[in-house]
Amino acid sequence: NKHIDAVKEFATTEKAQLEEFRVKYLGKKGLLNEFFAQFKLVEPADKKAYGQAINSLKKAAEEKVKELRTKLESSDQTQGQYGDLTRPGEAIEIGANHPITQVKNRVIEIFSRVGFNVSEGPEIEDDWHNFSALNLPEHHPARDMQDTFFIQRDPDILLRTHTSSVQVRYMEEHKPPIRTISPGRVYRNEAISARSHCFFHQVEGLYVDEDVSFADLKQTLQYFTTEMFGKSKIRLRPSYFPFTEPSAEVDVYWGLETETDYKMTKGTGWLEIMGCGMVDPAVLDNCGIDSSRYSGFAFGMGIDRIALLLHQIPDIRMFSENDIRFLEQFKRIN
Length: 334
Ligand code: PHE
Hints:
By secondary structure, this protein is α+β, with helices and mostly antiparallel strands. It has helices at residues 2-9, 15-26, 31-38, 47-78, 99-112, 127-130, 164-173, 214-229, 259-264, 281-286, 303-311, 324-327; strands at 117-118, 124-126, 150-151, 154-159, 178-187, 199-209, 234-241, 244-253, 270-279, 295-302. Strand 3 (150-151) and strand 4 form a beta hairpin. The radius of gyration is 39 Å and the shape is rod-shaped. Bound molecules: phenylalanine. Phenylalanine binds next to strand 9 and strand 10.
């Protein structure tokens, strides 16, 4: 009877222990066989009780093995070597897109919704694509607007100063209608400070087709600022770029709700966000597009500046310092 109690109380979640238990009672040299062997030594009067006792022990042991086996098998399916598959997962630590990438992706997404594709080009450029094709011949004073890094004193090879060079390449290779934006890194030989760096990022846009007008440009910009900043009030101020005529700077009305707004907009409520204009016909012709048939508009903005603005970051150098405490703050924004 004490064996029956022990059998009934036995429990395990380990396969090996269950096997040990089975061998102990039901194995060839197990207790039960031993008890059966002793049967012939039992007094005839006790044989009946003895026989019943070992039979119920046998039954109890067999039932126990069966019961524990099914239990172990069913939990095998959920646990086993893979652990409990029904447990909720643990969050995996993953990185985040850099704030510059986040802003770039948003700009791409907004323009792709109105039919612009994305084009890219080399950061090391030649004079033609960065300057000459864009109406900036050698010794043109406007070249000084973008202080240039040359590679190994070769005046023909340089680090691109804007992604307008990609637009030139795109026009050389594609026929209108053209709707493309060109994001990328650009370089200018400027003193590094909180507000400017010797490299930064741009997205420039180009639209060339028959009958493209300044009104189309303004409408596109208004769509963009509404989607990007939630601000639809814009103004265009006359400006100058060698590759566009007429040219303009785009200001967004940011409003004056907080002290930061006041500072950012120098108290006027207007914030400059990009340059734009109608592509100069000479530029179209330089790129093999017939300017008597086609017209176009172009615009360009600095991604870093927009990211500074959106997140109210005080120093542009933070973008390239790779300080994890800074970068981690952009994890859940995207
Ligand atoms: N390429 C100009 C710059 O880098 C921006 C621009 C692009 C202006 C297209 C007008 C049209 O400053």
